[in-house]
Amino acid sequence: MTDPYVKQHIENNIATIEFFHPAHNSLPGNILAQLADTITETGKNDEVLVIVLKSGGDRTFCAGASFKELISIENEKEGEKFFSGFANVINAMRKCPKFIIGRVQGKTVGGGVGLASAMDYCMATKFSAIKLSELNLGIGPFVVGPAVERKIGVSGMSQIAIDANSFYSPEWAKDKGLFTKVFDSTEELDDEVQTLAEQLCGFNPEAVKEMKQMFWRGTEDWDELLQERAKISGRLVLSSFTKEKLKRFK
Description:
alpha/beta; 2-enoyl-CoA Hydratase, Chain A, domain 1; 6-stranded mixed sheet; 3-stranded parallel sheet; globular
């Protein structure tokens, strides 16, 4: 696999949405936009009863947003647009009336942790360490923060946000409630994801829709909140501190 993509496959009322980018699944703006649109449209499809969200490749679930695009930001407007990418995907997941099962097969960083946090039920392998590295660049995990905090609490969120250089084990993530189960292999993970998806297809779609709204109660302001957070990051990425940091990575 060399070309980035977002693709969808529907079988037996289960929609599998898969994204991929050759740079460790670090996602550029166009792929994030396509992912958000695909989730939204799939949520409207009456044929679909449950959604599985996964990434291609073996080593990394998602390494966050595209670093190539990050270092090319020249003004606040571009910065806000860049950081809105994951905001739009998280909001699409939040508003989708179907349960979204997360299939995390490997490491996940930054925006990827936000995606995992926005899943309604997320399972992983023992290779799925997580990290919020944004503060190390002088930005901070502002956009994904609400989703991560909602899932693992203020204490867990502050721990991984402050300790921005460290990967945290999938067992730590499971203890905090981010992952529901951790498996020794991708094959075991896939079996369990399929089993759960099939079970959910036997539930009343109206009950699922009502439960989804109940689970996400209190997040009705996130369209505005995450956009405000994107503006903060878009401003900070232009700071002299962050520019110097990016030069070293570049």
